[in-house]
UniProtKB/TrEMBL annotation, chain A:
One of its GO terms (biological process) is nitrate assimilation. Residues 6-294 form the FAD/NAD(P)-binding domain. Pathway: Nitrogen metabolism; nitrate reduction (assimilation). Its EC number is 1.7.1.15. It comes from Spongiibacter pelagi. Residues 426-473 form the BFD-like [2Fe-2S]-binding domain. Belongs to the nitrite and sulfite reductase 4Fe-4S domain family. This is Nitrite reductase large subunit. Residues 634-770 form the Nitrite/sulphite reductase 4Fe-4S domain. Signal peptide: none annotated.
From TrEMBL, chain B:
Keywords: 2Fe-2S, Iron, Iron-sulfur, Metal-binding, Nitrate assimilation, Oxidoreductase. It comes from the Bacteria. One of its GO terms (biological process) is nitrate assimilation. This is Nitrite reductase small subunit NirD. Residues 4-103 form the Rieske domain.
Length: 849, 105
C-alpha cells in the first residue's frame, strides 16, 4: 500500500467535475488516490446547456470531461453507482452496489433535485421533471403520442422546458402560481412584457394558478384542476417548481443541515466535519443555496485549494445571483436587488411599448451606486450594468441615461471598460477576469471567437458576451490594432449602424450621410464602405458622378489595379461554363490588346495588363461577344464554382452546373460587406469544394444540402451544415435571406465566416432567424433581395453606353494617349510588368499595345 | 512662371481626381469641396502613376489622397506623405480662371 491519501468526490455533476479540474490544474493530483462516484449513467455533462441536447439528441455533445482526463490524472471515475451511507467514525462510504470505499477527504457535490409539489396525482404516468438527459429522453419519447404539454412553474427553468416542449411540436402551457413569470428575478412591469414575449413564442401562459389535483382527462391524458375552478387538459406534465438541495447523505450522517435543507459550509466549503466538504447546489453558505453554476464553480475552486493546503487562499464568500434567461429571441436579465428592497432605493424605468422593451435600474439612496436592474426585450446592457453593480462603480450624474435609447447618435452612456480594474470578473461562469482577457488579446486573440476558445469566457450562459467584446476592442485599440467598431474618425458608428442610418433615413448620397451623421471630409475607409452600403440599399449604378469619388479605384474603374497601375479584366463565366466561341472571343481580345491570360482559382479567365484607356474598348468587345462583368473588383459575388455534375459525371445526382449558373446569375452584382464566394457540387465527393465557401451547395439524392460561412484565404474555416435535403425553391429562399441578413448586419470587411463566429447565438441563432423566421424579418429580407435582383445591370455595359462615363477612363484629362511609363517584358510567351532594373536597362521592353 | 490651362472644373468629379500630362510630367489634380489641389501623380512607393486615382478625404483635418496601391496618404497641400514624412511628391500651384483650371509651370 502506498501512503497516498484517498480523496473521494460524491456526485459527478458540473461542480464535482470543476473540483477535479482544479485539483488537476494544481499539478498535485498524483499526491492522492482520487475517486469520483456518480449516480447517473454517464460522467459529468453540461447541465446548464441541457436543453441543447434536443439539437443533436446525443449525450456526447454535452460531455464536460476532456478525452483522457481521468487517465492522465489517474482518477478512478465510477458511473451508475449511488453512495448511500457515510461512516464518519471509520471514514468509509458505502454504495447501492454493496461496495465500500475508504476516504481521508470526502467532497459532497450531490447537487439538487427538482421539487415536485405533493399535488394528488403527481406520481401519474407522463409526469416528468427537467434535470437530466434521461428526463429529456423520456419527455421526447412521450411527446410522440402527445398533442398537449404543460409545465408547472414559470421560472427560468420552467420557461426553458416550455420552449423545448413547444419545439417538440406540442401545444404548450406554462402554469405559474405567482401573478407573473420569473417572479423572483423580474418585477411586475417586466413580467407583463415577458409574458407577451413568451406568448409570442406560441406558449400559453396561465398565472395565479394553484394546481390542486391531477386526474384523468377527457380530451387528453391528464386533467389539471386549479383552486379557482379552472381546468386544463394535457398529455404531458413537467414539474419545474424549484430545486431542493440533495442533502440526504449529510442528514443520515448527522452533518449540520440548514433549517430548510442544505449542507452547512464555511468559507473553505468544509461541513461541520472538517474532513468532509460540500460544494455546489447541495451546499448552504450564509443561509443560502446558490442555484447557479458560477457560485458552484467558485466553491469547487475554494474547496480544491483548501484540500491542497490553501496555498492560494481561495475562499467562498457568497456570490452574485444576477442572471440572464437563455431563451432564443426572449431577452430577459435580472441583476442584484431587482425589486428595490434596499431601504431608500430609487428606481428609473424605461418602457417602449412599440419595440417591446422594458428596462429598470435600481439606484442607491445617494444615487451613487447601482443596486439592481431588470431588462426585458433588450438585455444588451446586462454586462455593463452588472459591472457597475458588482464593482460599485460610481454612476454618472444622470443614471437614467444608461437605459435611455440614444436617438441623436450621441455615444451611449456605458461604462468604458477602461474604468474596470484588471481583477474585475467579466465572465462569472468561468471566472475570467478582465486581466485574463487582456492577456489573451496580447497573446494574439483578435476576435470574440478566439477569446472563447482560449479563456472559455462567454461559453456558458453567454451573459457576458457583449462585455467580452468591449474588453477585446478596448485592448486591441491599446495595442494599436484597428478595431472594427467605429468605422473611422469621421463616423462614430459601425458599418451595421451606418447601414441602418442609410436605410431608415432614406439617405441617398455620401454628402447627406456626412452632413447628418459624420464630420470632416471622409476618407478611404468610410467612403468605400458608404458606397457599398448605398449600393446594397439602392443598387444604384456605381459610376454616378456623385458616387465615383467614394470608390476605391477598383470599384471606380470596375477593374482591379495591378502593381504597375494597369488593370485586370475578368468577364463573368457563370458556374465556370464557357462555350468554345466564348473562349475564342476572349482569346481574340487578349491577343489584340496583348494581355496576359490566366485561369483564376475561381474557374474563369483573367486578362491582365490593360491600361485605363483600354478598359472601355476591351469591355465593348467582350460585351459584344456576350460577356458581362465578373465583378472581380467589387465587394460582391465573385464566382459560383461548380463541378460537372450529373450531366456528365457518373456519380452526379443533380445538375450542379445548372444550379451554379442560376445561383451566380441571381446574386451577381449584390454589394456586400466583403466578397462572396459560392460553389455547387453534384454529389458528396465535393469536387467544387463547396464547404470552403460563404455559400456551399452539395447535391443529395433528395435535393440539396446547404452549407454556410466557409472561407479559404488567410484563415480557412469549414462551412457549417445549415439545412439538409431541401428543394431548389427552399434553397433559394434560404440563401436570399441569409445573404441579406449578412449584408444588413456584418461589419465592414467581415467575411461570413468571421461574422458568424462573432454572431451572438451562433449557428443556432442564424438558423432560427433564417429558417424559422424568429425575428419576423424573412419577408423583408426576401423583398430587399428581390429589389437588388430587379435592379441588376452589367456595370460595364452601362458604362460603355455612356460617353460621359467613358471619359473617366482617359489616362489624361488634357491629351489623348496612354501612360508611356507602363512597360512590359516577355516571359513564357506572354507579357508581364517590367521590374525597375529591367526598366533601367531599357532592353527588350514592350510598350502598351 | 506661366499658367497653363488644363481642363474645366466640370471635367473632375466632385471629391475626386484626374491626371494631366504636362510635357513628360504627370500631375494629379483633385477637386475637394470646390477647391483645386495638384500634386505629382507618381506614387513613390510603387513607382506607378496612380495617385490621381486615389480616394481623397481628411485625416485629423489634413486633406490627403490615399494611394490606391498600398494606401499611404499624401497631403494635398504639401505633397508630404503622412505615414513617412521623409517621402513626398511634387506639389504644384493651381488656380481657377472662370470655369478653367490652370497650373503654374
Ligand atoms: C485572380 C485570383 C488569383 C488567380 O490568379 O487565380 C485572385 C486574385 C486576387 N485575390 Fe484572391 N484571387 C483569386 C481567387 C481566390 C481564392 C480561390 C477561390 O475563390 O476559389 C481565394 C480563397 C477562397 C476565399 O476567398 O475564401 C482567394 C483569397 C483571397 C483573399 C483572402 C480572403 C480571406 O477571407 O482571407 C484576398 C484578400 C482580401 O480579399 O482581403 C484576395 C485578394 C485578391 C486580390 C483582389 C488582391 C488585390 O487586391 O489585388 C487579387 C486581385 C485579382 C485581380 O486583379 O483580378 N484573395 N482568392 C483569383 C480570382 C478568382 C476569380 O475568378 O474571381
Ligand atoms: C435545464 C437547466 C438549465 C440551467 N440553466 C442554468 C443557467 O443558465 N445558468 C446557471 O448558472 N445555472 C443553470 N442551471 C443550474 C445548473 O445546472 C446547476 O447549478 C449545476 O448543475 C449545479 O451543479 P452541481 O454539480 O452542484 O449539481 P448537479 O448538476 O445536480 O450534479 C450532482 C450530481 O451528483 C449526483 N448525485 C447526487 N447524489 C448522489 C449520490 N448519493 N451518489 C452519487 N451521485 C449522486 C447526481 O446524480 C448528479 O449527477 C440550469 C439547470 C438546468 C436543469
Ligand atoms: S462532385 Fe460528384 S458529381 Fe461532381 S464531379 Fe465530383 S464526383 Fe462528379
Ligand atoms: S458569465 Fe456566463 S458565460 Fe460568461
Amino acid at each position: 500500500m502506498s501512503d497516498k491519501k484517498h480523496l473521494i468526490v460524491v456526485g459527478n455533476g458540473p461542480v464535482g467535475h470543476q473540483f477535479l479540474e482544479s485539483i488537476a490544474a494544481s499539478g498535485k493530483a498524483g499526491d492522492y488516490h482520487i475517486t469520483v462516484i456518480g449516480e447517473e449513467p454517464r460522467h459529468a455533462y453540461d447541465r446548464v446547456h441541457l436543453t441543447a441536447w434536443f439539437e443533436t439528441r446525443e449525450a456526447a455533445s454535452l460531455n464536460m470531461v476532456a478525452d483522457g482526463f481521468y487517465e492522465e490524472h489517474q482518477i478512478t471515475a465510477i458511473a451508475n453507482e449511488k453512495v448511500e451511507g457515510i461512516n464518519r467514525a471509520d471514514k468509509i462510504i458505502s454504495t447501492d452496489k454493496g461496495n465500500t470505499y475508504q476516504y481521508d477527504t470526502l467532497v459532497l457535490a450531490t447537487g439538487s433535485f427538482p421539487f415536485v409539489p405533493p399535488v394528488p396525482g403527481h406520481e401519474r404516468d407522463n409526469c416528468f421533471v427537467y434535470r437530466t438527459i434521461e428526463d429529456l429522453e423520456a419527455i421526447t419519447a412521450a411527446s410522440k403520442d402527445a398533442k398537449v404539454g404543460a409545465v408547472i412553474g414559470g421560472g427560468l427553468l420552467g420557461l426553458e422546458a416550455a420552449k423545448a416542449i413547444k419545439d417538440l411540436g406540442l401545444e404548450t402551457h406554462v402554469i405559474e402560481f405567482a401573478p407573473r413569470l420569473m417572479a423572483v428575478q423580474v418585477d411586475d412591469g417586466g413580467g407583463a412584457l415577458l409574458r407577451k414575449k413568451i406568448e409570442d413564442l406560441g406558449v400559453k401562459v396561465h398565472t395565479q394558478k394553484n394546481t390542486q389535483n391531477i386526474g384523468d382527462g377527457e380530451t387528453a391524458k391528464h386533467k389539471l384542476s386549479f383552486a379557482d375552478g379552472a381546468e386544463l387538459e394535457t398529455d404531458i406534465l413537467v414539474f419545474s417548481a424549484g430545486i431542493r438541495p440533495q442533502d440526504a447523505l449529510a442528514r443520515q450522517s448527522e452533518l449540520e443541515i440548514g433549517e430548510r435543507g442544505g449542507i452547512v459550509i464555511n468559507d473553505n466549503c468544509q461541513t461541520s466535519d472538517p474532513d468532509i466538504y460540500a460544494i455546489g447546489e447541495c451546499a448552504l453558505w450564509g443561509g443560502r443555496i446558490y442555484g447557479l453554476i458560477a457560485p458552484g464553480w467558485d466553491m469547487a475552486r475554494a474547496a480544491a485549494d483548501h484540500v491542497l493546503g490553501g496555498a492560494e487562499g481561495k475562499t467562498f464568500t457568497g456570490a452574485d445571483m444576477s442572471t440572464k434567461l437563455k431563451l432564443m429571441g426572449v431577452d430577459v436579465a435580472s441583476i442584484g436587488d431587482a425589486h428595490a428592497n434596499t431601504p431608500g432605493a430609487k428606481c428609473y424605468t424605461f418602457i417602449d411599448e412599440q419595440a417591446e422593451v422594458y428596462k429598470k435600474i435600481v439606484v442607491s439612496e445617494s444615487g451613487e451606486h447601482l443596486l439592481g436592474a431588470v431588462l426585458v426585450g433588450d438585455a444588451e446592457d446586462y454586462g455593463n450594468l452588472l459591472q457597475f453593480a458588482l464593482n460599485k462603480i460610481t454612476l454618472p450624474e444622470h443614471p437614467e441615461a444608461m437605459i435611455l435609447p440614444n436617438l441623436d447618435g450621441s455615444a451611449s452612456v456605458g461604462l468604458g471598460v477602461d474604468a474596470l480594474p484588471d481583477t474585475a470578473q467579466i465572465c462569472s461562469c468561468n471566472n475570467v477576469s478582465k486581466g485574463d482577457l487582456c492577456a489573451a488579446v496580447q497573446g494574439g486573440a483578435t476576435t470574440v471567437g478566439d477569446l472563447k476558445a482560449c479563456t472559455k469566457a462567454a461559453t456558458t450562459c453567454g451573459g457576458c458576451t457583449a462585455l467580452v467584446g468591449q474588453v477585446l476592442n478596448a485592448e486591441l485599440t491599446k495595442l494599436g490594432v484597428e478595431v472594427n467598431t467605429d468605422i473611422c474618425e469621421h463616423f462614430p458608428y459601425t458599418r451595421q449602424e451606418i447601414y441602418h442610418l442609410v436605410r431608415v433615413g432614406q439617405i441617398k448620397s455620401f454628402e447627406q450621410l456626412l452632413e447628418k451623421h459624420g464630420k470632416g471630409h471622409g476618407c478611404d475607409i468610410c467612403k468605400p464602405a458608404a458606397a457599398s452600403i448605398l449600393a446594397s440599399c439602392w443598387n444604384d449604378y456605381i459610376l454616378q458622378p456623385e458616387h465615383a469619388g467614394l470608390q476605391d479605384t477598383n470599384d471606380r474603374m470596375l477593374a482591379n489595379m495591378q502593381k504597375n497601375g494597369t488593370y485586370s479584366v475578368v468577364p463573368r463565366m457563370a458556374g465556370g461554363e464557357v462555350t468554345p466561341d466564348g473562349l475564342i472571343a476572349v482569346g481574340t481580345v487578349a491577343k489584340k490588346y496583348n494581355l496576359y491570360t490566366k485561369i483564376t482559382g475561381g474557374q474563369r479567365i483573367d486578362l491582365f495588363g490593360a491600361t485605363l484607356d483600354q478598359l472601355p474598348l476591351i469591355w465593348k468587345e467582350l460585351i459584344d461577344a456576350g460577356f458581362e462583368t465578373g465583378h472581380a473588383y467589387g465587394k460582391s459575388l465573385r464566382t459560383v464554382k461548380s463541378c460537372v455534375g450529373s450531366t456528365w459525371c457518373r456519380y452526379g445526382v443533380q445538375d450542379s452546373v445548372g444550379a451554379a449558373i442560376d445561383i451566380e446569375n441571381r446574386y451577381k452584382g449584390l454589394r456586400s460587406p466583403h466578397k462572396l464566394k459560392m460553389a455547387v457540387s453534384g454529389c458528396t465527393r465535393e469536387c467544387a469544394e463547396a464547404q470552403s465557401k460563404d455559400v456551399g451547395v452539395i447535391a443529395t439524392e433528395k435535393g440539396w444540402n446547404l452549407y454556410v460561412c466557409g472561407n479559404g484565404g488567410m484563415k480557412p474555416r469549414h462551412a457549417d451544415l445549415f439545412a439538409s435535403d431541401i428543394d431548389t425553391e427552399t434553397l433559394i429562399k434560404y440563401v436570399d435571406r441569409f445573404l441579406m441578413f449578412y449584408v444588413r448586419t456584418a461589419d465592414r470587411l467581415q467575411r461570413t465566416s468571421v461574422w458568424l463566429d462573432n454572431l451572438e447565438g451562433g449557428l443556432d441563432y442564424l438558423k432560427k432567424v433564417i429558417i424559422e423566421d424568429s425575428l419576423g424579418i424573412a419577408a423583408e429580407l426576401e423583398a430587399e433581395m428581390a429589389l437588388v435582383i430587379d435592379n441588376y445591370q452589367c456595370e460595364w455595359k452601362t458604362t460603355i453606353e455612356n460617353e460621359e462615363r467613358v471619359k473617366q477612363f482617359r489616362s489624361f484629362v488634357n491629351v489623348d494617349g496612354g501612360d508611356k511609363d507602363i512597360v512590359f517584358v516577355q516571359e513564357r510567351g506572354q507579357i508581364r510588368p517590367a521590374t525597375e532594373e529591367e526598366k533601367a536597362r531599357n532592353e527588350d521592353l514592350i510598350a502598351v499595345a | 512662371m506661366s499658367w497653363t490651362t488644363i481642363c474645366s472644373l466640370s471635367d473632375i468629379n466632385p471629391n475626386a481626381g484626374v491626371c494631366a500630362l504636362l510635357g513628360e510630367e504627370q500631375v494629379a489634380i483633385f477637386k475637394v469641396n470646390g477647391q483645386i489641389y495638384a500634386i505629382g501623380n507618381k506614387d513613390p512607393f510603387s513607382n506607378a502613376n496612380v495617385l490621381s486615382r486615389g480616394i481623397v478625404g481628411s485625416l485629423n483635418d489634413t486633406l490627403a489622397v490615399a494611394s490606391p496601391l498600398y494606401k499611404q496618404h499624401f497631403n494635398l497641400e504639401t505633397g508630404i506623405c503622412l505615414e513617412d514624412e521623409t517621402v513626398s511628391v511634387p506639389c504644384y500651384q493651381v488656380r481657377t480662371e472662370g470655369d478653367l483650371i490652370q497650373i503654374a509651370i
